[in-house]
């Protein structure tokens, strides 16, 4: 009964939407991005889908080019834009978190979307429809990976298969394009782990959710800032943050290696008792190298978990906000009207 009442209230109100857009060195595309997003919000507001208090919140993640200057200029030109500037480069996941936590008390719903316009902004209508139907979280999932190169396709497929094998709830082909309600954001604010992997964390909260499929477009301008090393670090964070299976696998491999060693030992003893000679220096060398490699790999996996524990004990903040330009469209609008008088 409570859910039905909540859904009726959602259908009878126009939610305040804030688009959270993380940016890092996006001067080549950010002007076009701002225009496209502002036009979309204007259409949604005109159609009564969202409130006219909705706006775009850019999160400048310590850009070293002219992104910050352009964003500040956009705020001067239109009250629909606001900007958070982080002190230094905190990383994509932390930039998204900064925007969401800042917006959670100022909006009914927040949609995180990349600045490169590859994620189809026209899918917002369906996102909001899912929210009004009762979903607290809506995931944007790409239809295919046709815009990716063969290497990226292979690594992405391998990664999702691995995550599923390790028991993670990560959603295949979902990359931080999502709608999340203020209710879910308030719950998310209670999670304090330093090793942040939102794609795995948000599905674990258990709120009603759904999926919206969209086509990925080509980048309007500039190049991707997600390097291979960043993607690899994100993958490692996803694995170590939500699964202890690698540690269990080390124990299993150690047990199997011990059994195999015992069997080989028995074979050698029996052969010696029967007067047979097993020269096999090459075999011995291969076994030694294989076991040494296994030991080093095991130490590396254990070390990765220890490093995560080390970072968690520090309790350092995810990000530090340097400056904020927050504009209330209604306040700015009234101010302009007063000046005209």
What does this structure look like?
- The chain has 12 helices and 8 strands.
- With 341 residues, the protein is of the alpha/beta class.
- It has 2 domains: 2-242 and 317-340, Spore Coat Polysaccharide Biosynthesis Protein SpsA, Chain A (Alpha-Beta Complex), CATH 3.90.550.10; 245-314.
The run of helices and strands is HEHEHEHEHEHEHHEHHHEH
Mean pLDDT: 80
Strand order of the largest sheet: 7-5-6-4-1-2-3-8
Name the beta content range. 5-15%
CATH class of the largest domain: Alpha Beta
Q: Could you name the CATH homologous superfamily of the largest domain? A: Spore Coat Polysaccharide Biosynthesis Protein SpsA, Chain A
Architecture of the largest domain in CATH?
Alpha-Beta Complex
Element layout with pairings:
Blueprint lengths: L1 H10 L5 E7 L6 H17 L8 E6 L6 H11 L3 E6 L5 H12 L5 E4 L11 H9 L4 E6 L7 H16 L8 E8 H7 L9 H4 L7 E6 L13 H15 L2 H29 L7 H34 L6 E5 L3 H12 L1
Parallel strand pairs: 1-2, 1-4, 2-3, 5-7
Antiparallel strand pairs: 3-8, 4-6, 5-6
Helix pairs in contact: 10-11
Provide a concise account of the structure shown:
By secondary structure, this protein is α/β, with parallel strands linked by helices. 52% of the residues lie in helices and 14% in strands.
Annotation keywords:
341 residues, alpha/beta, Spore Coat Polysaccharide Biosynthesis Protein SpsA, Chain A, 2 domains, eight-stranded mixed beta sheet, 12 helices, elongated, disordered C terminus
